Amino acid sequence: MINLVNVAPFIFLCMWSSGAFFVKTGLDSSSVWSFLTLRSLGAFILILLIYIFLKIKKEANRREHSLSRKNVMVLCLNGLFLQILYQSFYFLSIQHNLSVGLVALVLGLQPLIIPIFSGERIKINGVLFLLLAFSGLFIALFGSKDFSSFSWSGLTFAICAVLAITVGSACQKKIEVNPLESALVQNALASIVFILVVYFNGWNVTWSLSFVISLLWMITVVSTGALLLLFYMIRQGSVNKVSSLFYFVPIVTMIFDYLIFKTPMPSMTIFGSLMILISVLLYRRC
Fold first, then answer.
1. Is 82 among the domain residues?
2. What is the DSSP string of 14-28?
3. What value, to the nearest 5°, has the Cα angle with vertex 150 and ends 111 and 259?
4. 200 within 8 A of 145, measured Cβ to Cβ
5. Do the domain assignments include residue 154?
6. Number of domains in the chain
7. CA proximity to 107, closest of 54, 189, 147, 164
């Protein structure tokens, strides 16, 4: 029988990394806020249907499944960081002409700074492995020449994004609620907030087949499947080691780009990717 704990990182990376293609397509036909609204609302409805179908019973494990007022408040606070601030700052950094490569490099700081917020200690050799992985990320992205555009406002939003997902991930570890219920509450909050933002900023969507496909993929695969796996992995292990997986996200994205669109992978990118692979594997074992 396949152990979910063992295969979850691989499945998560494939799901999460695929989002880069569909976000770009989606934003070609809508504004940032309209796209985020549809994504959050769609994910909320889908998770709600799954929740009802599975008929999760609170009495089966009161501690794990209890959605008390206190739990809801904690989940809403965490949803503010993971589902609202992180998503908003991430999209705004790209909208303000910061290249995707530079955004990925800034987000690569997360495994290095998350111990400050999570309270988990890392051995000296673990820090060295993370620094090697970060160096590999820089080499891989530099090799792909994905540092084409820069702006200080975009960099500011990217820094805010990495701080938001870092704080959110650290807080998620302390939440003793079923991942499905956690995702349900957080997406409900995100839907309400983004609907209000769209109300004041205006609605901008051009419906097309490509946009619908992009939206459905983001809802089902990234915002539901990958998110639930992320919450599951955080509950099962060290939040620091889960965060180290994000070093692979731009690499897996480039692999998809190579396999699907035949985009060449320079030797420098391959070398940096191997550095990340070896460093993260050693880090997760230390």
1. yes
2. HHHHHHHHHHHHHHT
3. 65
4. no
5. yes
6. 1
7. 164
Does the residue 2 lie in any domain?
no
Tokens of 97: 């002409």
| Residue 202 CA from chain centroid, whole number | 26
Q: Residue 121 gets which letter from DSSP?
A: -
Tokens at 203, concatenated: 């609605």
Residue type, 9: P
**Both structure tokens of 215:** 């939206």
CB distance 247 to 134 below 8 Å: yes
Give pLDDT tens digits for 111-156.
888 888 877 778 888 889 999 999 999 898 888 766 777 889 989 9
CA distances from 215 to 60, 110, 184, 221, 277 (A): 35, 27, 18, 10, 31
For 52-61, the pLDDT digits (tens) are 887 655 544 5
**Residue 1 within any structural domain of the chain:** no
The domain of 150 spans 8-56+63-285
User: Cα(284)–Cα(238) distance, rounded to whole angstroms?
Assistant: 9
Q: How far apart are CA 201 and CA 242, in angstroms?
A: 36
